[in-house]
Amino acid sequence: MYFTSRPPLIAAFTLAMTLHSAVAQAESPPKEEKNSRWGLGLGIGRETSPYRSVKTDTKILPLLTFENDYARLFGPSLDVKLPSAGLVSFTLRARYSDAGYEASDAAELQGMEKRNGGLWLGARTDLRLPLANLSAEWLGDASNRSGGQQIRLEASHRSQFGSVNVMPRLAMVWQDSSYVDYYYGIRATESRVGRAAYDGTSSINTELGLRMNISLAPKHSTSVDVSHTILGSSIKDSPLVGRSGISAVRASYLYSF
């Protein structure tokens, strides 16, 4: 079933960002601009693909970050900060995803139509507790490629060891049937001998991860993030999938100013 409220979703997100930006500009004096923080750097990542015989790619990308009292940009995510209170914070989120594949990526995908990534819009809330940081995030496919939705629940804990910041995490990610069917399903027109038609259903993935941030010098920092995601049964059962889980390693260098 496709996510049918795309225009209202985009309109609501755009309106919220516009109103929040207008209020922020009206209420903040010029000196608030000093709270803006920029960063430039380089990121490198390597992640296994869930699809059969698809090679693991290494990606090297420039990194631009920005944050002030009202917005935060980091990698493929842009957050608009909403009024928050105490230990709880709320944000609107836009994120670009490069999920998907092309038929030329592997012999097992020959005859499959291309699956595209796209823009996802939604919201996130964070609860900061002494023992753990808890977060909940909902995103909907604003590009209307899959028509899907995702919900992510995460628990993490941050520890400081001198100039090294360590944060392990555990996350559960629910993806609805539209998402799973688009990226892992096989349409009747795509079925072949040895590749039967497959209708994907909703799935829950489990992610274990560890992130380390290291301060090298004033304004200079680097980070390393390693993770492993255990795929849900509806994804693992797809004839297109050849792994029970996917692993990723990402590293970055950032100069802040």
Automatic annotation (TrEMBL):
- Annotated InterPro entries: MipA
Localization: Cell outer membrane
GO CC terms in record: cell outer membrane
Highest taxon of the lineage: Bacteria
Signal sequence extent = 1-26
Q: Which UniProt keywords apply?
A: Cell outer membrane, Membrane, Signal
- The yes or no answer to whether the keyword Signal is present is yes
Residue ranges annotated as transmembrane are: none
Q: Name one Pfam family in it.
A: MipA
Record's keyword annotation contains Signal: yes
- Family the UniProt entry places it in: Belongs to the MipA/OmpV family.
Q: Which PANTHER family match?
A: MLTA-INTERACTING PROTEIN-RELATED (PTHR38776)
- Official protein name in the record: Outer membrane protein
Organism from which the protein derives: Sphaerotilus hippei
Phylogenetic placement of the source organism: Bacteria, Pseudomonadati, Pseudomonadota, Betaproteobacteria, Burkholderiales
